[in-house]
Structures are given as C-alpha cells and as structure tokens.
Amino acid sequence: MNAPVLVVDLEATCSEDMAAGWEMETAEIGAVWVRGNGTVLDHFQSFVRPVVNPQLTAFFTNLTGISQSDVDDAPLFTVAAEQLRQFVERYQMPGSIWVSWGAWDARQLLRDSARYRIAEPIALPHQNGKRLFAKAQKIGKEVGMAKACQLAGQTIAGTHHRALDDAMSIVGLLPFVFGEKLLRAQHQANHSAP
After folding, report:
1. Does domain 5-192 have CATH number 1.10.3210.10?
2. Where is the Exonuclease domain (predicted)?
3. Chain segment 94-133, per-residue pLDDT in tens
C-alpha cells in the first residue's frame, strides 16, 4: 500500500422483515483516508436523509443507534455524495483504491447514485476487504467485520453498525486484508511446520 487507501462504510435503512419492495437507502456514510503505514490522514462522516422510506424502523434504530432526528436534519444523498466526492479528491493519488467490508457498500452507493441520477461519489477502484481478508488469511470462508476483528485480536472501534466507527475498525484490519500481517493461529501453524 504505497498510495493512500480510502475505507468506506455505509449504514442503510432496513426493516426486520425487509418486506417485498423495501428499498434500502444510505442513512450514514463513514470514510477514512489511511496511509500505507496505518496512519489516518482524515475522516468523513455524514448522516443522509432518506426519502423513499423517511421514517426509520425501530429495528434500524436499535441496530445502529441512529435516531430519526439524526436523519431528519441531514442532507439529502445528492449533497452528502458531493461532500464525500470532495473528501475523496482531497487525498487520492495514482494507485489509490477504496475498500469496504464486502461488496454491499459499493452496490448501495451505485443504487443511491442511480436513484438520484448522479455520478458515483468515489471514482477509485473498489476492493472487497472481506474477500481479501479470507484469501490472505486462508480462513476458507468470508467472515463479518466483527468476527474478523475477533480473529485479529482487535477491539471494534466505537459502536458497531455506525459508519465511521466501522470504517475505523476496517482500517485496523487492513494489514490482515493485504496479507502484511497473519492471524496468530495461521502464523503459529506456518512457523511450526517442519
């Protein structure tokens, strides 16, 4: 990792049963620019006001801790996306990528951008940190971010299911994602082999 890496996490509206036709909308964006040595350059956080399902479900509020007043006073996706685009452009360099834990965040940004007919706010190649972590650590299957933190012996930053906190947790996992560090069990297995 020579060029800075952008780590992004989103929280999106949801319901417990996700009834047919329910459209998830981004409700919070968290992003962190990080140097190859793990130094955080800057961070970005914004709530986003949903318009398709403007009333948050109790399930979503209980999961994330995001309140109705947080999103009622928040900018629309078009404004938050422009703020994110400016944040991205501030530190991007040739070779910069963006990472999320899984492909869902990239798909959600694409869905929201298409809904509002705007360009995607991140014009960088995307990498699936969940997949890279599983491959680099040879754990066989992809695991959630909280489980990855547990495997890496890392405490989850802040509150799980809050965008900026989860992005900061992923920042801590990047050395494992890119294979620069091995999980203890794998490290011990590799060094005990004859």
Report:
1. no
2. 4-183
3. 999 999 999 999 999 999 999 999 999 999 999 999 999 9
